[in-house]
């Protein structure tokens, strides 16, 4: 408990202001620790137009583009998504204003020792764990009866209303995309949605990455893939940092200010029998600029059985994954040990 309390009272934001050498627990110890390089090649991330995807006359071509994106990179940028640039800026603004509050005001929303929900940073589960250079605000959005409103900031005044509106729109988009992904594989349109369930877990993670004195050795987020079905990321409008791993090489993600970056999570990789890829990604730091992002994770209902769709299993492509329930609990056990959680459900 003391270690946890100490961690929260020592926010990364405060350490960045302090300017001292960060503690050793922030230094990344992975196999690729020597190459925390922000100047890796840029990915040409596919761009999918949601308007074209949902219009009968143009959907076939856009479905093909979506299929190519998620079967190669596992990610794409979505435009024409029905949210105005000014609204996305408002979402970014409430996040920035929250992290700009005094430490005393932010700590009103501090997470409890045994939970990730609320304001803080990494849960300490072992002495050997590497800590991410980020402060977060982590909130449950759905099911609504699972919301812990005490962690939803009252300041900025429009924080709750803005987050609610934004995540409602994302949940509509998530349904469109799960249908489209199934159709792109010539499956029944509701095939993935049926596995996703009627009471999915939707969580939001506001990420604040202050300038870091040692970007050569410290990561904003360690390499990982997501436990979700689909993840939506609202990127910082100006500061890059996100990188994806493909064929053992890191690539950086460009910023399209009015787009949302979407990546497939492990549970859609399982449903698609490995055709769609849940990409490993990380966040690098820099010495000069802070970076704000908002990730929203759409996670299947925990008591639903997640398995490869029957239509994707054949003699030439056998079933590659076991059936699994409550994948998130498996995920956290493996992730904190530095293992790739999806390996635990591969046949």
Automatic annotation (TrEMBL):
Highest rank taxon of the organism: Eukaryota
PROSITE patterns xref list: FE2OG_OXY
Keywords: Dioxygenase, Iron, Metal-binding, Oxidoreductase, Vitamin C
Boundaries of every Fe2OG dioxygenase domain copy: 200-300
Record has Iron as a keyword: yes
Database matches in InterPro entries: DIOX_N (IPR026992), IPNS-like_FE2OG_OXY (IPR044861), IPNS-like_sf (IPR027443), Oxoglu/Fe-dep_dioxygenase_dom (IPR005123), Plant_2OG-oxidoreductases (IPR050295)
Gene Ontology MF term list: dioxygenase activity; L-ascorbic acid binding; metal ion binding
Listed PANTHER family: OXOGLUTARATE/IRON-DEPENDENT DIOXYGENASE (PTHR47991)
Family: Belongs to the iron/ascorbate-dependent oxidoreductase family.
Protein name: OXOGLUTARATE/IRON-DEPENDENT DIOXYGENASE
């Amino acid at each position: 408990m003391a270690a946890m309390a100490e961690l929260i009272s020592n926010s990364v934001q405060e350490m960045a202001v302090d300017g001292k050498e960060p503690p050793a627990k922030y230094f990344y110890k992975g196999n690729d620790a020597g190459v925390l390089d922000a100047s890796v090649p840029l990915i040409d991330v596919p761009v999918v137009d949601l308007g074209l995807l949902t219009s009968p006359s143009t959907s076939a071509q856009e479905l093909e583009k979506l299929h190519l994106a998620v079967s190669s990179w596992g990610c794409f940028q979505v435009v024409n998504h029905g949210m105005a640039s000014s609204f996305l800026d408002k979402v970014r603004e409430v996040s920035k204003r929250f992290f700009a509050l005094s430490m005393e005001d932010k700590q009103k929303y501090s997470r409890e020792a045994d939970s990730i929900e609320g304001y803080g940073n990494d849960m300490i589960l072992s002495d050997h764990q590497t800590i991410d250079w980020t402060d977060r605000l982590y909130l449950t959005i759905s099911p609504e009866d699972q919301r812990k409103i005490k962690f939803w900031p009252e300041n900025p005044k429009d924080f709750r209303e803005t987050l609610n509106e934004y995540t409602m729109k994302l949940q509509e988009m998530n349904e469109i995309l799960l249908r489209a992904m199934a159709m792109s594989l010539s499956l029944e349109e509701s095939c993935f949605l049926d596995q996703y369930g009627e009471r999915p877990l939707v969580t939001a993670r506001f990420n604040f990455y202050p300038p870091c004195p040692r970007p050569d050795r410290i990561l904003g987020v360690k390499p990982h893939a997501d436990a979700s079905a689909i993840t939506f990321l609202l990127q910082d409008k100006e500061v890059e940092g996100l990188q994806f791993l493909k064929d053992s090489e890191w690539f950086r993600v460009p910023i399209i200010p009015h787009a949302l970056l979407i990546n497939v999570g492990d549970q859609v990789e399982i449903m698609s029998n490995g055709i769609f890829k849940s990409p490993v990604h990380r966040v690098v730091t820099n010495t000069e600029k802070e970076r704000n992002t908002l990730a929203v994770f759409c996670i299947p209902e925990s008591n639903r059985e997640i398995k490869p769709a029957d239509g994707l299993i054949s003699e030439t492509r056998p079933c590659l994954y076991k059936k699994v329930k409550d994948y998130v609990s498996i995920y956290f056990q493996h992730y904190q040990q530095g293992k790739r959680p999806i390996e635990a459900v591969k046949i």
